[in-house]
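Q: Given only this backbone (210 positions), what sequence would you predict?
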């Protein structure tokens, strides 16, 4: 159990330091990951930025992820779920385009220039506050891969064993402090798990510039 996201970030940072992990840049998945990613970036002496993806919800059930799309249009589809629900190609394209636009606009709120920073040949650590299904993390990792990163690590305080297992093929390393079998939701492993505002997220990003 973590006190809050900052506590989780400090504990994750200590673990990564103990592993001797090296990074050129840490990318947090906003907004919830920024309080976790800030201590990680500080501990690894790396720049902090963001990578953004949006879940693509099913018809009449937006919380059920048909896949996810990143701000650059990189997309992952849950093909088995799509087939089982009989979702049309027209619906998929409509929700993909809409959520890609939302992801791009969200990313633009957190940086002055559009698009990811230069990741070519870089060692990148992608941080989230936890992994449930892993849909958004998968789309983010694919975006980082396609940007030319040399080595990609996904690091989280907690995640479902199944969700983390599904992500192992998307990153060079997947690191989680906790993988509880009784996993139901990320928030159950935090004593405080409130929403992170845009203003708070920006503050975590700006701390490294001071």
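A: Predicted residues:
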């Amino acid at each position: 159990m973590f006190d809050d996201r900052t506590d989780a970030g400090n504990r994750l940072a200590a673990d990564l330091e103990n592993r001797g992990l090296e990074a050129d840049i840490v990318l947090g998945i906003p907004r919830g990951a920024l309080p976790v990613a800030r201590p990680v970036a500080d501990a690894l002496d790396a720049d902090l930025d963001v990578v953004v993806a949006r879940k693509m919800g099913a018809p009449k059930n937006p919380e059920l992820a048909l896949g996810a799309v990143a701000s650059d249009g990189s997309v992952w589809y849950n093909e088995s779920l799509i087939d089982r629900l009989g979702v049309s190609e027209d619906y998929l394209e409509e929700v993909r385009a809409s959520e890609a636009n939302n992801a791009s606009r969200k990313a633009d709120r957190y940086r002055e220039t559009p698009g990811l920073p230069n990741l070519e040949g870089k060692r990148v650590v992608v941080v989230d506050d936890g992994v449930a299904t892993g849909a958004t993390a998968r789309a983010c990792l694919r975006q980082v891969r396609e940007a030319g990163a040399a080595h990609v690590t996904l690091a989280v305080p907690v995640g479902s064993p199944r969700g983390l297992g599904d992500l192992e093929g998307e990153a060079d390393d997947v690191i989680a402090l906790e993988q509880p079998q009784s996993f139901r939701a990320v928030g159950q492993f935090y004593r405080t798990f409130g929403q992170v505002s845009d203003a708070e997220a920006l503050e975590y990003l700006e701390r490294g510039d001071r």
